[in-house]
Design brief:
CATH architecture of the largest domain: 3-Layer(aba) Sandwich
CATH superfamily of the largest domain: Glycogen Phosphorylase B
CATH topology of the largest domain: Rossmann fold
Number of helices: 16
Order of helices and strands: EEHHEHEHEEHHEHEHEHEHEHEHEHEHHH
Radius of gyration: 21 Å
CATH class of the largest domain: Alpha Beta
Shape: globular
Helix content: 40-55%
Number of strands: 14
Strand content: 15-25%
Number of domains: 2
Length: 369
């Protein structure tokens, strides 16, 4: 750590709050939870707080969400968006260690720690538009080379970052996601009621058309007569028309729930038969853990970081074999003892993954960098 980033022996860390000016995503959730967790770790340990200070800096269009977080923040202007992140932030944070948790950090900075959640723009380019691919192909190699340290969310992602030569493995630390945010939510079953869903007779999945999410496999599986008594409930921004434009047909058993609140999602999981996640690759794969921690079994593909993250607590089915998915889901529907066992295994496994533990690990990495 350069002397300029320390004040009286204290490491000064400035957190890049640009993500608070955009619509919330899974990556943004990770950033929020780690940020809140680090503040809690420092609050509980005054001696640690003497060694590290944490400051959240945001552009003016991120102030509303920053205020809702309930932690101190500083607004910098007048720029917003990428110019704010790449120009204003590094200039104003000179002499501090810059922490960016959402894949992108100021390329000009050297005293920086940046979290690359995955390398999927390289491994699954069809999932992203040209502008996104171009920006990440420009940014990641530069940040991977210049920034003092890189974070990622799984050993799988660490290997992928090395495979695509974005950063040397020795300069990467793995910080697993937590999942206990689901336990803080009040369950809202209004969606379950409004959609007329029968408890234990539907499967939850993502309404996402990205190629690597592989949701088309679930649409095919639910055309099998063995699943005729179940519904497939997909939550997220994509609708039936979005899948049809890509040549996929959503049958009458498929229900599109649209964008839903976290509280509604918790209830949707709690009353579901299982969560189905046939992704071809994931840097981490938070949705299966979110389901498991509230007692919903998960069926996942043995791909990407999913075996690392879910271990033996999930059921697995090949990502190109819809018949195997039909069999795995059918077994949960037809054998309540088996389902109860899988629910217990998932709950036990997921309950050990907390944001406080992840935040404490991140604080330790920052002090060691």
């Amino acid at each position: 750590m350069p002397a300029s980033a320390r004040r009286g022996g204290q490491c000064r860390v400035v957190v890049n709050g640009k993500f608070l000016s955009a619509d919330s995503t899974g990556v943004h959730r990770v950033a929020e939870e780690l940020l809140l967790g680090m503040h809690e770790v420092l609050r509980r340990d005054p001696a640690l707080a003497q060694r590290l200070s944490l400051e959240l800096w945001v552009p003016r269009d991120g102030e509303e969400r920053a205020r809702r977080l309930g932690i101190p923040y500083r607004v910098l202007g007048p720029l917003v968006g990428i110019p704010w992140e790449q120009l204003t932030l590094p200039w104003c944070a000179r002499g501090s260690l810059l922490l960016s948790l959402c894949n992108v950090g100021p390329m000009a900075a050297r005293d920086a720690v940046t979290m690359f959640h995955d390398a999927q723009v390289h491994s699954s380019p069809a999932s992203y538009n040209r502008g996104f691919r171009t920006w990440y192909h420009l940014h990641q190699p530069v940040a991977g080379r210049r920034h003092r340290h890189i974070l990622t969310v799984s050993e799988f992602s660490r290997g992928q970052l090395a495979h695509y030569r974005l950063v040397e493995p020795a300069r990467v630390s793995v910080i697993h996601n937590g999942v206990d945010h689901m336990l803080r939510l009040a369950s809202d079953d209004s969606l379950v009621s409004s959609l007329g869903l029968e408890r234990g007779r539907y499967v939850v999945g993502l309404a996402n058309t990205q190629a690597h999410k592989n949701v088309a496999l679930l649409l095919k599986a639910f055309q099998d007569q063995r699943l005729s008594g179940l519904k497939l409930v997909l939550f997220g921004s994509a609708d039936a028309a979005a899948f049809e434009r890509l040549g996929h047909q959503a049958g009458p058993q498929v229900v599109f729930a649209g964008r839903i609140s976290d509280e509604q999602l918790k209830a949707l999981y709690q009353y579901a038969l299982c969560m189905a996640f046939p992704s071809l690759t994931e840097g981490f794969g938070l949705p299966p853990l979110e389901a498991m921690v509230v007692g919903c079994p998960a069926v996942v593909a043995p791909c990407g970081a999913l075996p690392e993250v879910c271990a033996g607590a999930a059921d697995y089915a090949p990502p190109d074999d819809e018949s195997a998915w039909v069999s795995a889901i059918s077994r949960l529907a037809e054998d309540p003892v088996w389902r109860a066992d899988r629910a217990r295994a998932g709950l036990e496994h997921a309950s050990h993954k907390t944001w406080t533990a992840s935040a404490a690990q991140l604080v330790d990495v920052l002090l060691r960098v």
